[in-house]
Known about the structure:
Helix content: 25-40%
Distance between the termini: 38 Å
Radius of gyration: 14 Å
Structural class: mainly alpha
Strand content: under 5%
Amino acid sequence: ERIFITPKNHLWHHSKELKHKYGQNFGFLFPWWDMLFNTLYNPAHTDTELGLSDNFSYRSNLSKLVYPFDKIFGKKD
């Protein structure tokens, strides 16, 4: 799990539980980027709820692509 992304690593990427401000485990094949940017999260347990932490419903496929950027750079409440 320190060399290659495993299904357990990927599971935590889709968790509603965010351990870092914008999520965790963004690596595709190797976890090195997550190690570099301190976004690697790899607990021993795998019991977590999957999905988005908010109840956002997408209007279109384009809105799915824009959503992460809007969350980071968009209007602040």
